Amino acid sequence: MEGSVIRSKFKEKDRHVDKNTHLSSFSQWLNQINFKQLDETLGQTGSDKYVKKLMTKAYMTLFLYAHLQKEDSLHSISDCVLSEELQKAAGLSSISASQLSRKNNSVDPQLLMMIFLDLVAKIKGKQVPKIDEQLRVVDSTTIPLNAQRYPWAHFRKTKAGVKLHLRLVFMGKGQVFPEKAVLTSAQVNDRSQLDVLVDEKEAMYVFDRGYVDYRAFDRFSEEGMFFASRLKKNAVIHVLHTYKVPENSSLLSDQMILLQSLL
Q1: Please, which residues have CB within 8 angstroms of residue 209's CB and are 6 or more apart in sequence?
Q2: Among 9-13, 66-70, 195-199, which is the least confidently predicted range?
Q3: Cβ–Cβ contacts within 10 Å for residue 172, how many?
Q4: Do 197 and 138 meet the contact criterion of CB atoms below 8 Å apart?
Q5: Cβ–Cβ < 8 Å for 169, 179
Q6: DSSP state at residue 45
Q7: How far is CA 106 from the centre of its chain?
Q8: What pLDDT digit, counting tens, does each position of 153-173 carry?
Q9: DSSP character at residue 75
């Protein structure tokens, strides 16, 4: 029994330390957001004109903190407000899950896009590597939606959703940021967005087999765009030349090939 109490105390202490660490990181996140620009935009649109409690800035503060804490529900986010530090940051002493839900449905997504683009511009302004030293990863993720509430997003008999196509830039160890995002319905094929996400020369692009488009690959090669992709299992290739691979290399083979569909 005594051992259980001691372990419980340690858990509470560790949780407190983690909270302080997260709050320290959280304050750094907030410092990067141009809240002055947000206030000006809100003033022009009148979005917060009749709001009594959960203003847009407080809403964003809560959801950013929830992301940092990996909270997975509106109820758990409302519980976060019990933290004194978060109360100071958000200017709230309490909030209900229903209030969070209503605000979540009413916030203009263009405001969030404005902040996102502003942050990306700040990151790109500080980048050190040249464009030909950048590694860009293209991938997509499907976000499920309620099929009854969002019938326009149906992509299977009982499912609905949207697909987020994202391009990430790797500038170095620990330096990664999203550079471009495209939102489509979930039924849209990944490769339909390849030309949108692969659009600058001399950068190195990496993407999965869902984006395989042999005609686009041919065009990229002619235009000087470098890329790496997994081929589909049924891909037919013709080996033109095999290069020697250094000993102890992680590469299995290095070949110049011609895809069958281009023959």
Answers
A1: 229, 230, 231, 232
A2: 9-13
A3: 12
A4: yes
A5: yes
A6: H
A7: 22
A8: 888 878 889 999 999 888 777
A9: H
**Contact predicate 172/157, CB 8 Å:** no
In angstroms, rounded to a whole number, what is the distance separating the alpha carbons of residues 61 and 23?
Answer: 11
The pLDDT tens digits for 71-112 are: 778 888 787 776 766 777 777 777 788 888 888 888 888 888
Question: Which pTM value belongs to this model?
Answer: 0.62
Residue at token pair 């009749």: 50
What DSSP string describes 191-255?
Answer: GGGHHHH--STT-EEEE-GGG--HHHHHHHHHTT-EEEEPPPTT--EEEEEEEPPPTT-S-S-EE
Confidence band (pLDDT; 50, 70, 90) for 19?
A: very low
Higher pLDDT, 87 or 211: 211
Segment among 34-38, 80-84, 131-135, 244-248 with least mean pLDDT: 131-135
Q: Which residues contact 213 (CB under 8 A, 6 or more apart)?
A: 191, 194
Do residues 109 and 36 touch, judged by C-beta distance below 8 A?
no
The strand pairing partners of 203, in sequence order, are none
